[in-house]
């Protein structure tokens, strides 16, 4: 029996379970393969007491439909920076990659499939360089990987964010209010742009186009008549930055440090609008983790399933050091080395921005 | 042609449009009635330049399906406190109720239907005492009116909040995190209780049961094993208060004063949990106005439609000074005087709390 | 360890899993109880090889969110009519209730909770009369039980049907078409009435009001102008009957005999409209099992959870021969004997029909 | 003031309104353009009494969110086959294209944007050949146009169909049933394939792969154990054909002739399975027009909006005789002549079929 080990790393993302299920279903067609899941990303292998789970068809039946990941994930640590508690209570990080290689040999693991974002794939590449038979599956709701046209989870996040814009539209119109919705996306404006366009927002603020608050104010004013009648929906990406300023994440190291969420981009914009003399009521909503959860849309389930099938077939073909990617409607493989670190951002002069401006959306530029 | 004037006051609420449509459709069966909508609550009548809209069947076709209110609403002012700008730029509030009575006479309005919350119905009662032919239709997503078993909008808010809990569940489980969801409800815990129960939350914090942070901590600890494995979803009402403390709204006058949202109940709880030594990751989501928007669920559309038909029939029967109410599955009328100011809160020893504790939900008591 | 056995019988229904979970969670609070699930209704006990499953908290975690029933169900057989294959290949039905009683004793089962519809509860009563410690939990998406104000699953079915009406509305309007939607409900029109009202249908046909095709034709004609412009949405219950005619289920024994779906009430109505000279395009949709499936709405989850908690507490109090019921917003218990066979139908002169007619819905009477 | 006329033709499709809105919003940026809508496809121009509607921003605000088309559509007639009633009551079809050209001149229409399927675009090409300044926008939920990678409406239909598969899954599993879902797609299996893959169906029957009923039976049998335990979800396209047989639409001219829906592909398959000795319960659902209706998903709204902006810009650039298309994530223009009649079908040896087989879906081949 040959064994392939699967791990999911980084923030959770709708479609992870569909990838896992596809790997297991595809593997079950071959007679001599077994799939193991490492619990809580590579922690299941790295910790002293190994924690893996045999994944057969019964274990994964129906999970394509569920958000999250049945084998757990984590955003911390990993084989090259495993936290070890020192006597004084502080942590130091040690390289546990050799331990991991040994453990995998012991378990009879032939190949590893690592499903994760850019950070995870950097680790994949380093493990590959150490000699591990590893294959990457990209994962990010932010859709900011140059190597692949789409990542699963992104479309679901866009649908959830668009639903929020739809819901806020009726409130804004009924109350003559300004409603600001903050969505995820890290340094990229994909979720903001897509949901602003789909929801018919008035203003869309993305990291790739630093906003001039005066331009935003001017646009808002045009939406209100002399009686203060009018309304506006604004979608802002968490990584938004004012002209000459920086994203809050850069200022604070990370929004949500000490595991708590600080006021973010939406709140800053609201304060700036008030400071600039906007008198209309403003309400902000930070959509948060709702964007990462729930049932993946059909598009994402199918993309994720294609990725899973392809990943296992790459194992069969020993295409190690490669990553699954979606290009021009085909699932292909690309070298991990090329894939990592190549961020795909919204280009300010792209067709999509042109379209959005064509239906009157302002970007604060 | 006899005329009935309709106004919607206070925060928007799914189902308002269904009430308006039902009034118009029902009135169209009578040959000699016309429905007017006052724009932006009573402002359409109170301001110098009257702003009303004739509402016929074409104007309201299909609106039962849409959130918000097609005639607008406001949370400020009203006939007894109409803001007038003074020379120094500040405002004083004047009684414009006589002006309103005159204007209605001028417009040939026989009766007024005022759709609104407790504040609006207090105004209805005062107008009734002044001699206005007025009928109230209760409206609140908070479901906190003793006079009626249900108000429209509440069930929709519960469904939206439950969907959020569902979405957060998968993230919490995948990451071993604590996710705190803050929902609306003012002084009442109905939305929190219903969505926590439906979503299967671990902890539910409502204003009616002040929480002992130690009890919450204890419960959370029980959910995690020695490896830090486990997760918990917490639903907290915006009006939640710690034992011996007060709701943030009381502290700050109103959350969201100066039209900006301050950190709320969810953030306070997160800080308290951290302070008490909880090491698990915590993420907070404030659902905000998403709860008020969007498509009303079938239950709310039907309740709202029943209210609208009844309200117009009360006009036909000249049952002025009364409010529509839903009791024991019948739509009836009750005196406005009795209805106002009688808040319906969650009773800590009620069957629903008993049910929630029966499936293991902790309330911090 | 005391044991309680749970079974789900009859057609599946959103909320079944929430009842099961609530029983298990509530039982886990007591130290000395264990819950068993009988697989595929009572078949798990009745067949030669016993098939039961221990249901602990891990087995039911998160299932309140899922449609169907994790312990399976069946619409055939039961302890008093167990099918036994004869030598000639045909079946005879034998009374296996004594065998069942023995088997339960053997398994150490103290009490049985039977979740099911009217048919299942008749069996419960007969088993109770034989001496079984049995408690009933009502289940039907049709909401046609007089003993309880609401049954879980009904509101979900209404929401699904209303969503279908919403979707058909835009097509009907764009094409000047008549769209007929057939919904479930057996002899009762509750689902049809509620979804027609919520969706703003033009015509609603329910079993309780036999329809005069001429009245329906007349109403349809009024919706179209001289240019053939107009549209109409019709919601029809599967049990609908023309004046002087009968429901198709009565004609054919059962719609769907030989396990296949025949043309139903919607198709009959379409043919009648065509025969009466309606020239507009007509399209029919039979919603079918989509109404029974999927995620229960929050309302149903909470009702189902209340039923489950109550049912287990009735076991603790040995209230055997009783059924859980929801009356006037409280979950109570009623004698099975009274509950069975008392059908709750839509009353043609009820307030809800009055409301529907008030917003212009025609019933063909 | 220059005028552009917009018409929507053929079956309705989620996203039509988003195209219309985008054209109007984009046109409003130019100072000297006005948009007219022809009511009920080109009928508004072709009939004796012209019926067009000025579409300004107020007329289209918020419609991107709504299904259907605010200017109506029709599946009959057109400029080259305008039905004229003869004295004996029958119809003959006349060429009204010259009348149409004259009328457009009279109205001062510079250019026409025709949003419609393959049939509509054939008409566009013929009108272009007659000298009309016309631009096409492709529309089909079936996604079967070779000229464009995606058409709006398709993804929404897939999401609706997938939701149906999800709902049927729980019923199938609870009852050990076979549930057959019939979806749209004409001669193409795109909706069936995508929803079967996303929903995790057992069997998927598409027109491109004629099915061998014995293969289907064999697969179904494998899903059931000796006790008759098991279940299966089958998704079948309306255009499905058995090996050596033909699609029902070919047999009957058109399914739904005489404006009534006959039993379709799902019913045929159910009968074939029964005839082949399958004893499990079978239930069929024909999803019908629900797939065409309702709120377009974000993906479709954005695609449709891009199409609308592009179409108007093609008017500005006088790119007549061209059609908007989406290729490799860019919206481009292609000659109508090339675009029409080039059907895109599922290729049996494509990667997507390979993926579906990789997760165990059977196609009856």
Can you characterise this structure?
Chains A, B, C, D: InterPro entries: ATP_PFK, ATP_PFK_prok-type, Phosphofructokinase_CS, Phosphofructokinase_dom, Phosphofructokinase_III, PKF_sf. 4 copies of one chain form a homotetramer. With 365 residues, the first copy, chain A, is α/β, with parallel strands linked by helices. Chain A folds into 2 domains: 2-152 and 296-339, Rossmann fold (3-Layer(aba) Sandwich); 158-293, 3-Layer(aba) Sandwich (Rossmann fold), CATH 3.40.50.460. Chain A is 37% helix and 19% strand. Chain A has helices at residues 16-29, 43-46, 57-60, 97-107, 118-129, 154-175, 190-199, 213-223, 248-251, 265-275, 298-316, 336-339, 351-358, and strands at 2-8, 33-38, 52-55, 82-85, 91-94, 109-116, 134-138, 178-183, 203-205, 232-237, 282-286, 322-327, 330-335. A 7-stranded mixed β-sheet of chain A has the order 3-2-1-6-7-12-13, sandwiched between helices. Chain A has a 4-stranded parallel β-sheet with strand order 9-10-8-11, with helices on both faces. In chain A, strand 12 and strand 13 form a beta hairpin. In chain A, helix 1 (16-29) packs across helix 11 (298-316). The radius of gyration of chain A is 22 Å and the shape is elongated. In chain A, 61% of the residues are buried. Chains in contact: A-B, A-D, B-C, C-D. Chains A and D meet through helix 1, helix 6, helix 7, helix 11 and helix 13 of A and helix 1, helix 6, helix 7, helix 11 and helix 13 of D.
């Amino acid at each position: 029996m040959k064994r392939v080990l699967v791990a999911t790393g980084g923030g959770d993302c709708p479609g992870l379970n569909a990838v896992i299920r596809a790997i297991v279903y595809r593997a079950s067609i071959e007679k001599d393969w077994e799939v193991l899941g490492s619990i809580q990303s590579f922690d299941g292998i790295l910790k002293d007491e190994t924690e893996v789970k045999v994944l057969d068809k019964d274990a994964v039946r129906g999970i394509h439909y569920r958000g999250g990941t049945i084998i757990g994930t984590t955003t911390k640590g990993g084989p090259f920076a495993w936290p070890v508690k020192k006597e004084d209570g502080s942590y130091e990080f040690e390289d546990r990659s050799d331990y991991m290689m040994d453990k995998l040999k012991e378990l009879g693991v032939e190949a590893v499939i690592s499903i994760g974002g850019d950070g995870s794939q950097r680790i994949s590449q380093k493990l590959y360089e150490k000699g591990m038979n590893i294959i990457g599956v990209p994962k990010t709701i932010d859709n900011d990987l140059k190597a692949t046209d789409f990542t699963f989870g992104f479309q679901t996040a866009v649908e959830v964010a668009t639903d929020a814009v739809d819901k806020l539209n009726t409130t804004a119109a009924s109350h003559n209010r300004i409603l600001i919705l903050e969505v995820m996306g890290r340094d990229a404006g994909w979720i903001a742009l897509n949901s602003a366009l789909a929801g018919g927002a008035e203003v869309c603020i993305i990291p790739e186009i630093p906003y001039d608050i005066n331009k935003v104010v001017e646009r808002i004013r045009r939406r209100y008549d002399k009686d203060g009648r009018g309304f506006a929906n604004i979608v802002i990406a968490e990584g938004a930055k004012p002209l000459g300023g920086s994203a809050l994440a850069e200022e604070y190291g990370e929004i949500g440090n000490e595991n708590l969420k600080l006021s973010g981009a939406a709140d800053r914009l609201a304060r700036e609008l008030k400071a600039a003399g906007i008198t209309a009521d403003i309400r902000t909503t930070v959509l948060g983790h709702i964007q990462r959860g729930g049932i993946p849309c059909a598009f994402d389930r199918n993309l994720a399933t294609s990725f899973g099938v392809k990943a296992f077939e790459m194992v069969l073909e020993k295409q190690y050091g490669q990553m699954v990617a979606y290009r021009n409607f085909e699932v292909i493989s690309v070298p991990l080395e090329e894939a990592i670190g190549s961020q795909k951002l919204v280009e300010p002069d792209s067709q999509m921005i042109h379209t959005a401006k064509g239906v009157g959306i302002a970007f604060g530029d």
